[in-house]
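Journal club prep — side note

Before the paper discussion, L.F. wants everyone to see what a predicted structure for a comparable chain looks like in token form. Sequence:
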Amino acid sequence: MSAKPVAVLSEISPGGCKLVEVNGTRVVLARTGERVYACADACSHRGGPLSEGKLTGARLTCPWHGWMYDVRSGQCLLPARGSAVATYPVRVEAGNIWVEVP
């Protein structure tokens, strides 16, 4: 498994999201301050596009039914019984965002 360059940090404003594709997998990049996190783009509830959701701090809300995820861990925060979404390692080097997806 190796990381791939997927975006440039300046393309995502703090508090913003960006949809990218890595090895055929749809991944949402979420920027909180200078940190960038990557998780699966599909909500575990009904597959809603998380990349179209609202990011508040480290919480990303699905636009379809309001399920909420912590982008740092993928854990579903609302409802508490919800399944997590996959997260992927991210690194930022010289302004480039690299993501590692199996």
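L.F.'s comment for the group: DSSP finds no helices and eleven strands in the chain. Keep this in mind when we get to the figures.
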